[in-house]
Here is the input.
Amino acid sequence: MEYAVYAEGLRKSYGGVEALRGVDLHVPRGTVYGLLGPNGAGKTTTMGILVTLIKPSGGRAFVAGYDVVEEPQRVREHIGVVFQEPTVDRDLTAWQNLYIHGRIHDLSRNEIEHRARHVMELVGLEKFLHRRLRSYSGGMIRRFEIARALLTEPEVLFMDEPTVGLDPQARTRVWEVIEELKKTGVTVFLTTHYMEEAERLCDTVAIIDRGVVVAEAPPEELKARLGGDTLYLKTASPAEARRLLKLAAGYGDARLAEDGVTVVLVARDAPRLLPTLLQEARATGVSVIESRYVRPSLNDVFLMLTGRSLRDEEGGWSDWMRLHMRARR
Amino acid sequence: MPARPRWLPAFQAMAWRQLVRFLSARSRVANSLVFPLIWLLFFGLGWSAAFNVLGPAARGIFGGLSYLEFLAPGIVVMTVFTAGFGSGLGIIWDREFGYMKELLVSPAPRGALLLGRLVGDTVAALAQGAVMALLVSAVAGWPGVWGLLGGLAAAAAAALASASLGSLIALSMRSPEGFHMVVNLVMMPMLFISGAFYPVDPLPAWLRMLAYLNPLYYAVDLARGLMYGVHSTPLPLDVAGLAAVTAVAVAAAVARFSRTYIA
Ligand SMILES: Nc1ncnc2c1ncn2[C@@H]1O[C@H](COP(=O)(O)OP(=O)(O)O)[C@@H](O)[C@H]1O
Ligand SMILES: [Mg+2]
Here is the structure.
């Protein structure tokens, strides 16, 4: 099988609630793949099924070529997992946690010692190897969990919302670690509800909403479905604006803004198009007094596909709740 | 198939983890000695004084032992048995703090993970039992080195059984509160019809039947036989009964753990 992760029609219902209503995924080997969706979309449930801890109610899924229901043992041999909530033993040191992790994955003590140093360096925690995890910050715990997941050199690394609850600095550190991983050829499957995260890290993004994947493609391709960038060109008079509108229509979908003096153009490749347009405008005697363009974000894609905004979720009540629930522990 | 060689490292790692945790939680250890000590001192010395009123006739009730001698092996077994239930609590905490997922998602055989935990906790419980055994020997009379070791061996089996029962309950409960409730519901009757505090022989038949299903009964009788030479069931039968009940408890816990998903 050519995919590192492949899923077809995954379903999961909890009592009467359908958390997943047919999820299809195609994750090429050696790429970073992001499952993007708002809270409650079904990301954690999907990942739980893929890492063999949740029994699907329907559908099939393969990880590293093994069926997650038929051969969970085989799947577990080939994956590393960072769960949404911490899963470490805080009473033990990082080394002790790594040692147990290695032993239950059948590594020898020598292998563990050797690789422990390497993975702790990768996440920048080598100085804290013999500290109890109780003394780690939230960001350090998250990085440690990534290190631990990498100890066994897994084929596929799963990460559920790797940066939720982290401060901006800690988030950037985690992003850098994931970018570093890209070079090693490991397949990374991450879930997120931050579109910046998906845009920055992922080769492919699957947008999930209410238990269904509504789109799956590279971020650029998803954004291209919106028809391109939006350019705003403000002129000095309505007459000039109308002339510019005629000109702009040759490059894409152009219209006049409500102020009557601004032309709005949706077209591909705004950074290159803008200078050309300005030159032509001047040549036809139109003076553009203000210009800018906006590139579409995954949020716009989400909005187009679902009619709702991803942004509503960010920094919202649910994040706050989760942070505080975690802090309480 | 690499499934077989993986068994031992996982078993060993889990046992090691439980012992490291045990050693780093000294207050909890001291705590678990307090309860049995209270029994020994207040219950034991109190009844001892009361029975002394009867004079030598009192020894007739307890197979020729003084009440303190009668009680001492039961106290040791009880210490280890209650400590063993703590294994279930460990599972509850591991689930609360997420560590259970780290274990469940590993390819290690579930049986190795659970047995390692059970054995680690049993050894930790036994360490507490050894301290208690020395204390009760000082109060009730020295049972000899072999007597002491024999008593501890019986206690170890009881600890393994209670650790398995505790784990079984923990794996079947959703909340820590539920666990505590069920454990108390199970543990108290087990302690009282174990023959630790009074002889089982004069009990009505139905209560005696319950005692024979109770791993603690065999452990106490065996410990008492080995420590002070008095027992109500033939010792080989004690051994067989203890082994059988413990084996069933362990097997049930392992079977339950092997079927554990998070949803
Ligand atoms: N154990 C559970 N019992 C009942 N409902 C659940 C359970 N886990 C998740 N759900 C529901 O399934 C839906 C998807 O949840 P989840 O996969 O956690 O979403 P996400 O990770 O995208 O935030 C939500 O509506 C959630 O309330
Ligand atoms: Mg989630």
In short: The pocket of adenosine-5'-diphosphate (ligand 1) is lined by residues A 14, 17, 19, 37, 39-45; B 263 (CB under 6 Å). Chain A touches chain B at residues 14, 45, 48, 51-55, 73-74, 76-77, 79, 81, 83, 85-92, 96, 99-101, 103-106, 329 (CB under 8 Å). Chain A has a mean pLDDT of 90. Residues 3-78+154-223 of chain A form a domain with the Rossmann fold fold (CATH 3.40.50.300).
